[in-house]
UniProtKB/TrEMBL annotation:
InterPro entries attached to this UniProt entry: NST/OST, P-loop_NTPase, Sulfotransferase_dom
Membrane topology summary: Single-pass type II membrane protein
PANTHER family: HEPARAN SULFATE SULFOTRANSFERASE, SULFOTRANSFERASE
Record's protein name: Sulfotransferase
Keyword line: Disulfide bond, Glycoprotein, Golgi apparatus, Membrane, Signal-anchor, Transferase, Transmembrane, Transmembrane helix
Coiled coil start-end: none
Protein EC: 2.8.2.-
Organism: Acanthochromis polyacanthus (spiny chromis)
Molecular function GO terms recorded: [heparan sulfate]-glucosamine 3-sulfotransferase activity
Active site per the UniProt annotation: 127
Domain Sulfotransferase: 118-353
Region (Disordered): 62-88
């Protein structure tokens, strides 16, 4: 058979072309394998949200046996403030996990997001409506807030600011980082500690009729310990003499003016906002307008975001652009209060009246609890 240059060229050219394709394919395959390897390595370094929450629960359990931060306060349970959120904390963690999934791609692409110390803190008060306010605020695109209560300035201060910062969600330039821990308002050491972190921190206090707040506090505790003494017997040191027991934290927390004096030693009144727990129920959009103005934010959260739930007795959240079912707070909110002796209620009102009067004068606003 004769040698044909034409046939030879037809044979050599396709072979070289195939080799080039294989070479390019191998390079691309190697790059894809390397990228997958990097992604797996990155994901393995991301802290497990649920595991971190369990650790927080274990840490909180360790402090349950320590003396209450209220000093000489007599309480039925030392972790009274943690109980307020423990029932909802797992719901919050699940919500944060979902938000993390929803924002995962944008988080990878936006490397400018960092963890920052909070510029604003909801510092109190327990059973005033702090959970509702936090949920309302988290609707705002310019706010990043951790759901679970860090208890840094009252229980975990020895762990340092770096530990505290790591608890915060990532935020971008222009976004406000927040947290809420209701026990801060009544803990003596907290004002100085927050001032040391930043003297410009904005502070929000959700207050409520102190008598109603005390009954709500008791109701929550009784839901955990059904065999506790009656509200009436716990309220008085001596019932026949009508002497109120101010060492019981359910009573002590509602002495708002006494606690405020400590905060004003470090922060000017302009840096504190007092939100009405009652108006968060009856006019949530109105109170949210005040809060957003105080924080220097656009009024994004409006009446379009609220739907009143008559069964629960407080507003639920909804997406204004859709027809999805409104989201209500957990079953631990809106408990039915026990019937309290009217004479005891009146004696408590008389007890709180001078404290309320002083509080109104200090903040320049009358909440009308009397």
């Amino acid at each position: 058979m004769e040698y044909s240059p034409i046939l030879h060229s037809l044979h050599v050219v396709p072979s070289s072309h195939v080799k080039n394709k294989l070479f390019v394919f191998c390079i691309m395959l190697s790059l894809w394998v390397y990228m997958i390897y990097c992604c797996v390595g990155y994901c393995s370094t991301v802290p497990n949200l649920t595991y971190g929450a369990v650790n927080r629960h274990e840490n909180d359990a360790e402090v349950d046996n320590q003396e209450s931060s209220l000093g000489a306060s007599r309480d039925l349970l030392n972790n009274e403030n943690e109980l307020d959120s423990r029932g909802d904390e797992w719901d919050e963690i699940r919500g944060e996990a979902k938000a993390l999934d929803d924002n995962a791609m944008s988080g990878f692409l936006n490397e400018s997001e960092t963890k920052k110390l909070p510029q604003a803190i909801i510092i109190g008060v327990k059973k005033g409506g702090t959970r509702a306010l936090l949920e309302f605020l988290r609707l705002h695109p310019d706010i990043r807030a951790v759901g679970a209560e860090p208890h840094f300035f009252d229980r975990n201060y020895d762990k340092g600011l770096d530990w505290y910062r790591e608890l915060m969600p990532k935020s971008s330039e222009g976004q406000l980082t927040m947290e809420k821990t209701p026990s801060y308002y009544v803990t003596k050491e907290v004002p100085a500690r927050i001032y040391t972190m930043s003297k410009d921190t904005k502070l929000i206090v959700v207050v409520r009729d102190p008598v109603t707040r005390a009954i709500s506090d008791y109701t929550q505790t009784r839901s955990k310990k059904p065999d506790i003494p009656s509200f009436e017997s716990l309220t008085f040191k001596n019932m026949s003499a009508g002497l109120i027991d101010t060492t019981w934290s359910a009573v002590q927390i509602g002495m708002y003016a006494k606690h405020l004096e400590r905060w004003l030693q470090y922060f000017p009144m302009e840096q504190l906002l007092f939100v009405s727990g009652e108006r968060l129920i009856t006019d949530p959009a109105g109170e949210m307008a005040r809060v957003q103005d105080f924080l220097g934010l656009r009024r994004v959260v409006t009446e379009k975001h609220f739907h009143f739930n008559p069964a629960k007795g407080f507003p639920c959240l909804k997406r204004p652009e859709g027809n999805s079912k409104p989201h209500c707070l957990g079953k631990t909110k809106g408990r039915t209060h026990p019937n309290i002796n009217l004479e005891v209620v009146q004696r408590l009102r008389d007890f709180y009246k001078p404290f309320n009067s002083k509080f109104y004068h200090m903040i320049g606003h009358d909440f009308g609890w009397d």
